[in-house]
């Protein structure tokens, strides 16, 4: 394993950011090149824990002469966000300077224009420099794994339709409990990678065999435990072996969890501000009309609470950790067999 460091000049005098990058050199130039990053949202740390143990496993494989692929591993992809604390609470999701999501507004380019990402970096903001250099590294690879987590959630992934069902091997290896299928049309990191591959030629490609760019949601933000991270690392290692990146025999069972399009996700929101009393948990299957939570809107009053019910039957994939919520706050996401009737942009979870 070799290490390098990307130095990102800050936007104020005397500030710079250092981004450690780990490299494993493979023995087979035909093997798929692998890019793995964690904590692009700097306060989502299950992925960083996974990467720590995965690198230990990769070093063992390296010593055994089993590494066939070139690997690029970024254990904590966002030193800028990691330094953002507001009254002692880490603010790693949005850049406080520009108010943009660290996992949005990645350049949407063709892979043939990859080298242009690094042109004139000195005139760009620190966050733009970070995003462009991460994307540049990823676009030199074939398998791109972006490790995130949710608030409270099952283990699941966002996977572009262009990679499904081939990517069911990743879902199986990591024992995911759900897969959410997207159209890959946002500016998030993994979708920007997929966009670049799709538009490598003039006519958009709808299938990308042998490629994969995916966001893995490693349960909830507080699910950072050694045995859990070791198990997840072993699952990712098995996936990499199954794709020929590591010379080791593995056998993966078929993925049998739900795989549903984003249009089939019910986003349950708070109709008013109040105190949330959840009555159902992640991982539970609910029926249409089942009570999910009670929202106390006017404490102590006879009519001071509202029951929040399931719009349709499905699996509770995520739940908010907040118990005092604003109007329209996300409370749950439920994966369903049929499309939501909520009014929102097709193929997204946004209104």
Could you characterize the architecture of this molecule?
The chain is 19% helix and 28% strand. It has helices spanning 46-63, 79-82, 126-138, 168-173, 189-198, 226-242; strands at residues 2-9, 16-24, 34-38, 71-74, 85-86, 89-90, 143-150, 152-153, 155-160, 178-182, 212-220, 259-261, 265-269, 274-278, 285-286, 291-296, 305-309, 314-319, 324-325, 330-335. The strands form four sheets. The chain has a nine-stranded mixed sheet, with helices on both faces. Strands 8, 13, 15, 18 and 20 form a five-stranded antiparallel sheet that branches. Strands 17-16-14-19 form a four-stranded antiparallel sheet, with no helix packed on it. Helix 1 packs across helix 6. The radius of gyration is 21 Å and the shape is globular.
Overview features:
alpha+beta; single chain; 5-stranded antiparallel sheet; 6 helices; 19% helix
3D shape: globular
State Rg. Answer: 21 Å
Work out the strand percent.
25-35%
Sequence of secondary-structure elements: EEEHEHEEHEEEHEHEHEEEEEEEEE
Low-confidence stretches: none
Main beta sheet, described? 9 strands, mixed
Q: Give helix % range.
A: 10-25%
Q: Termini distance?
A: 45 Å
| Main sheet: strand order | 1-2-4-3-7-11-9-10-12
Mean pLDDT: 96
Query: Number of DSSP helices?
Result: 6
Class from secondary-structure proportions:
alpha+beta
Count of DSSP strands = 20
């Amino acid at each position: 394993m070799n290490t390098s460091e990307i130095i990102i000049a800050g936007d104020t005098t005397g500030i710079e950011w250092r981004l450690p990058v780990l490299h494993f050199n493979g023995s087979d130039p035909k093997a798929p090149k692998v890019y793995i990053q964690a904590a692009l949202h700097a306060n989502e740390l299950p992925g960083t824990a996974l990467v720590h143990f995965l690198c230990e496993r990769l070093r063992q494989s390296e010593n055994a002469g089993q590494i066939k692929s070139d690997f690029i591993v970024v254990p904590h992809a966002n030193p800028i966000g990691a330094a953002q604390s507001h009254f002692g609470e880490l603010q790693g999701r949005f850049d406080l300077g520009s108010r943009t999501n660290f996992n949005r507004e990645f350049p949407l380019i063709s892979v043939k224009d990859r080298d242009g990402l690094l042109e004139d970096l000195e005139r760009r903001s620190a966050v733009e420099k970070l995003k462009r250099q991460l994307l540049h590294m990823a676009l030199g690879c074939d398998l791109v794994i972006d490790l995130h987590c949710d608030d409270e959630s099952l283990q699941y992934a966002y996977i572009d339709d262009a990679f499904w069902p081939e990517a069911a091997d990743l879902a199986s290896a990591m024992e995911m409990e759900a897969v959410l299928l997207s159209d890959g049309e946002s500016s998030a990191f993994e979708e920007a990678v997929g966009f670049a591959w799709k538009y490598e030629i003039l006519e958009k490609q709808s299938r990308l065999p042998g490629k994969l760019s995916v966001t893995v949601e490693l349960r909830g933000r507080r699910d950072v435990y050694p045995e859990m991270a070791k198990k997840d690392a072993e699952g990712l290692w098995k996936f990499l072996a199954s794709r020929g990146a590591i010379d080791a025999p593995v056998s993966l069972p078929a993925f049998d969890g739900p795989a549903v399009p984003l249009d089939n996700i019910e986003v349950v929101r708070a109709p008013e501000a109040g105190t949330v009393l959840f009555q159902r948990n992640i991982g539970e299957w609910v029926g249409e009309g089942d009570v999910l939570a009670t929202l106390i809107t006017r404490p102590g009053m006879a009519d001071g609470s509202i029951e929040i019910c399931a719009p349709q039957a499905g699996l509770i994939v995520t739940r908010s950790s907040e118990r005092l919520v604003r109007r329209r706050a996300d409370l749950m996401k439920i994966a369903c067999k049929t499309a939501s009737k909520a009014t929102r942009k097709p193929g997204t979870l946004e209104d």
